[in-house]
Amino acid sequence: LYQLHNPPREVIESSAVWDTLRELKDKTRIAHYGISIGKPEEGIVAIEKGGVETIQVVYNLLNREAAKELFDAASKQSVGIIVRVPLASGLLTGKYKPGDAFAGADHRKDSYPPEKLAATLARVEKLRFLSEGTGRTLAQAALKFCLAHPAVSVVIPGIKTPAQAEENIAAAAAPDLTPDELARIEAV
User: Residue 54: CB partners within 8 Å, gap ≥ 6?
Assistant: First the structure.
């Protein structure tokens, strides 16, 4: 799978890159091609202009924008959805608490200044019902949420430790989210 990673909108709208990728596929130099995008609307353009086979996009319990229009368009064209950042850069692991801050060179420091981080962690607190007495951790519930959408093919959670890898893998055996839980998520 050859994926373009966050190309500018002009590239997505241009036929040149897509013609080249189709040619490489026709010559069996690549088996499949897709795109990693920043905004869901870029994925719709990539489907229409480029005939992509996969779209990698941010989707998680805190950022559900991609499911609104992109997932339906992708499903109609049999385009696989690869979910990135399913744990919201670690915020959906349950590890962080209100009052925490990112320091130093942590890339999240710029994305989550103190006020935004506090508001985001308040939303995470409202999602803790997904782990309390359910037999799954909050991180596992977050992965289950992403995989519950029929358009999603796979998630690619980041890991920093063997324990995190084991917890993510254990999500496969964790209980699925119930219809009631999925309905409650919509209110958060």
Answer: 1, 3, 32, 33, 34, 35, 79, 80, 81, 82, 153
Give the pTM: 0.94
| pLDDT score, position 105 | 87
Regions in the chain scoring below 50 on pLDDT:
none
The residues, any chain, with a CB within 8 Å of residue 91's CB and separated by 6 or more, are 62, 112, 120, 121, 124
pLDDT at 123: 95
pLDDT at 167: 96
Q: How far is CA 67 from the centre of its chain?
A: 10
Q: How many angstroms from the chain centroid is the CA of residue 136?
A: 19
DSSP 8-state assignment for residue 49: I
Distance CA 39, CA 41 (A): 5
Q: What is the DSSP letter of 33?
A: E
For residue 54, which amino acid is it?
Answer: T
Q: Which tokens in the block code for residue 166?
A: 């084991």
